[in-house]
Structures are given as C-alpha cells and as structure tokens.
Amino acid sequence: MVLDRKILAVTLILLGLCCVVALLTLSTGRMAFSPLQVLDVLTGGGPTRARLVILEWRLPRAAAALVIGALLGLGGAVFQSISRNPLGSPDIVGFDAGAFTGALIAISCGMAGWIGLALSSVAGGLLAGAAVYVLAWRRGVSGFQLIVIGIALGAMLTALNQWMLLRLPLGQAVAAGAWAMGSLARVTAEQAIAATFAAAPLMIVAFILSRRMRITEMGDERAQSLGIRVELLRLALAIVAILVTAVSVSIAGPIPFIALAAPQIARAMTRSAGTTLSASAATGAFLLISADFLAQRIIAPEQIPVGLATLSLGGGYFLWLLLKEARR
Asked: CA-to-CA distance for 93 and 80, rounded, in angstroms?
C-alpha cells in the first residue's frame, strides 16, 4: 500500500481533533469533569460516580459517534467513487430509506430488541441497493443512472415509510419517528461494541479494494486494460457502501449529509485528485461527533437529535453543491 504523506497528515490531524471533541463530550454536561478527571477514569481510576457517568452514560455515545461517522464518511466516499459524482451519497440515493423501511417492518411485526432492528435494517438497505443496481443496469451501470434511479426509489421508500408510521400504534410511531430523526441518545455500550466489530471488516475490505477503485476513476476502459473487472469491482464496492450505511442506520437511525459532505471536505483538505478513504472516514467521524456535541449542548439542558443538527448544517452545503454542479 502506498501512503501519501499529505493524506496521512490530514488523517492524523482529524483523528487528533476527534479525540479533543470526544474529551469535551465526556467532560461537559450537567455533571462537569476536568479533562484530567476524565483521563483518570479512562485509565481505570476515579470515583464511582464519575466512572458511572463517563464510562456508562457518555462513553458509548461518543464511541458510537466516532464509529458511525467513520462508516458514513467511508460509505459516501465509496459511492461517490462508483458514481463519479459528488451528489452520489447513500442517503441521497435511498439506501438510508431502505434501511429505515426494514426497521419499520420489524417494528410492525413486533420484533423487540436492537439486534432484530439491526438485522432488518441491514436487510432493507441491501434490498434497496439491489433494486437500484438492477434498475440501473444497462449492459453495465453508469453513475448518472445510479443517482437518478436511487433518488426516485428513495422518494418512493420515504413515502412508504411515512405511511407505515401512520399505521403504527401511537407509542411505536412516536419511538420510530424519534429514531428516524437520527439520534445517539439511547446508544448502549453493547451497540457501540457491535458497531465497532461490524465496522472493522467492512473498512478492511474497502481499503483492500481502494487501489483498484482509484484506478477505475480514470475510466472503465483504462481499468479494463489493466486487468480490472470493472463491473464486479463496482458491485463489490456498492455492497460495502450499502452495508456500512445499513450498520449506521441500525444503530442511530438515518443521519443525513455526513456521507455526502465528508468525502468532498476530505478531498479539499488533501487536495487529492481522487477519493481518499482514510481522510473521508476521519472527516466523517469528526463531523458527526462535533454535530452530536452541538446537539447535546446548544440548547442545554435540553437535547436535539443529531440528525437535526446535521440536517441544519448540511442543507446549506447541499444547496451550494447543487448550484456548483448546475453551473458546471
């Protein structure tokens, strides 16, 4: 693997910023602790009360924000590379909506527990991705077809999700609606650990395929001349993008715009000509944990779902991106 010094430096800086924001998240709130107290608790010391608040209440949420943000940044980078379009993002083309549909079906069938919701979300995301891929197939798949068909399918699934919410009993509908906004408030340690174990193999596969992915960005014909089976590679990358999106939705619900913005911000910072998976993942982690910190503190002691925070911040970015693409 060839390491670019600039990409490595940007990634390390972003990871350092993630640690700083995580430390702020763990130390602030209704019960405030100094950074030294937090570090003491994280290394096995500290009083019982501080250990309860930091390790059991705050740490799972911060860890989940970092892992899910990295997954969203990675999934967005992979799909933007496949589609060769900055608008190509799992939340734009309906993968989020498909994962949410799977979760709503599980809730409607009375499946209890987050494991059932996680499995149904993954299944829904995979089915939505398969539908987009099959409908976009015309002796191959082009990025423009993927995006247009994905947006159309996402709109249909969103309408279906709204109908299903209206059909649910009031208590289930309120809980599902809150989860649909994208929230890390109820993430447990078990969920954070499960997300980490699910993220590790997906990231490894993505990084293994990254070199060939970068070659395909120069054109299908050139990649084929170098012995790369472009459609098979594109399918494998699409599956990775769908799975990382489904895993994040299964834990925190749909969180918009992180997958869309992180790869573009990473590319601007690294000044790279192609997609950078490591910098995109680190950018996604930084964006999500920063948005979650704001969601917890901006109207304290009340909190807002992190999905609303990313939606508010990402709306302006999405409008700028649309205008930029329209001028191009």
From this structure: 11
Q: What percent of the chain has pLDDT over 70?
A: 94
Map residue 325 onto helix, strand or coil. helix
Concatenating the DSSP letter of every residue in 43-58 gives: TT-S-HHHHIIIIIII
**Orientation of helix 258-270 relative to helix 306-327, angle to 10°:** 60
Residue with tokens 């459609």: 231
Of the candidates 176, 173, 168, 161, the residue with the CA atom closest to the CA atom of residue 94: 161
Q: Give just the sign of the alpha carbon dihedral 143, 146, 152, 157.
A: negative
State the Cα angle at 295 between 290 and 297, rounded to 5°: 95
**Which two three-digit tokens encode residue 34?**
């100094």
**DSSP labels, 250-289:** HHH----SHHHHHHHHHHHHHT-SS--HHHHHHHHHHHHH
- The pTM for the full model equals 0.88
**Token pair recorded at residue 288:** 């999500």
Q: Which of 292, 288, 253, 286 is nearest to 269 (CA)?
A: 286
d(CA 123, CA 242): 10
Find, among 243, 241, 91, the residue nearest to 180 by Cα: 91
Q: What per-residue confidence (pLDDT) applies to 2? A: 63
The CATH T-level fold of domain 5-327 is ABC transporter involved in vitamin B12 uptake, BtuC (1.10.3470)
Write down the H helix ranges in the chain: 5-27, 35-42, 48-51, 59-83, 95-108, 114-136, 143-167, 170-180, 189-216, 220-225, 230-252, 258-270, 277-297, 306-327
Mean pLDDT of the chain: 84
pLDDT of residue 1: 56
Number of neighbours of residue 57 by Cβ within 10 angstroms = 13
Q: pLDDT digit string (tens) for 287-325?
A: 999 999 988 888 777 788 888 888 877 767 667 767 776
